[in-house]
Design goal:
Rossmann fold; 34% helix; 7 strands; seven-stranded mixed beta sheet; alpha/beta; 232 residues; 6 helices
Amino acid sequence: MNDRERRRRAIRRFYDRLGKLLDTQGFYEQSGLDILVREGRFNQAHDVFEFGCGTGRLAEQLLAGPLPVDATYTAVDLSPRMVEITRERLAPWQNRVDVRVSDGSTHLDFPDAGFDRFISTYVIDLLDEEEALELISEAHRVLCRDGLLCLVSITNGTGLFSRLLMSSWKLLHRFSPLLTGGCRPVRLPCLLQADEWEEESHHVISRFGVAMEVLVSRRREDPRLQGERSCA
């Protein structure tokens, strides 16, 4: 077993044990999610994909709110317990929802141009840089032309208290990643290639000193490909 697989198994065990307690992180996470919901133009979405759905809190917010009544929602998560919780939470929309257990791979078993929104919140900060870049590449592949990449992550601090807190978070992660749930601050724009993505919205906010980054980017059309599915 390689280091990546060992890390994935450790993260799966951590979140299986955490279960519904993950929602207690909403005291800081929800601020970033609310911005994403506002900026992601979900009222125009029809085929949504979420990588790392956790307890399904964001999916519920979108399905109960801005998503059109005919929109479908596909989600995956590494933790079987999280998938179980999400399926229970999204039961009112079960005919429009497909929630699956993932092996943690950033290579997705979905066809090209199948979605018009790709969501990943508080997950990229769990991945190493190579995995994060692989996931962004897969997002580009599975999004249709002009589809939106919608990301939220913890990031570097802004302001004295936030900088101290997030610097301490980084040090703790280096000492023992599971003490931080495997997460560490990252910079989302650094992961996106300018020729593949056009930034539509970018916010860095702080809640109780926890710094978060919210990024919405539009998939640029690849001029080498013809007949790509349009989101229109």
